[in-house]
Amino acid sequence: xxxxxxxxxxxxxxxxxxxxxxxxxxxxxxxxxxxxxxxxxxxxxxxxxxxxxxxxxxxxxxxxxxxxxxxxxxxxxxxxxxxxxxxxxxxxxxxxxxxxxxxxxxxxxxxxxxxxxxxxxxxxxxxxxxxxxxxxxxxxxxxxxxxxxxxxxxxxxxxxxxxxxxxxxxxxxxxxxxxxxxxxxxxxxxxxx
Length: 193
Description:
Blueprint: H1 14-22, H2 31-44, H3 49-62, H4 68-71, H5 76-83, H6 92-110, H7 115-122, E1 128-129, H8 140-151, H9 159-168, E2 172-173, H10 180-185
Parallel strand pairs: 1-2
Helix pairs in contact: 2-6, 2-9, 8-9
């Protein structure tokens, strides 16, 4: 097997390597997949991706496979039940944001808008390659998109979470320059990140 250099963060474990090679940075346009990715980015805030990947199956189970139509029926009793579930990330803020974001997501759909159309408004061509040699945690673009999501009722979607989401869903090519995927995804763009 030929070694391909990856982003430094992805070299730590086989789980991270697989996530990097098969998921992270690959373009996602299907709305439910965009929704789930945004929710997982919220859970990842302040934690490592390894933890999220290790608990992703449990999070899916606990949150009804991230089906928004089911999540909007979660009650305060469900929140308390989830706060006792040791298999997931037990943060009340993160848990309640999933439920409120399900409502915001469905409200967008009712008004004829999707996450994909919202993203296309801000990023018509992608991926945008980070021109900076330094890794970023947010940008003017992630601030704009976070603000747009908040105006639509989303919670716990600050510019850092949104920046990470844009990386994960392939809108920003933030692979490290030595990574094989940086070259595979590089695109000259006039758009600012």
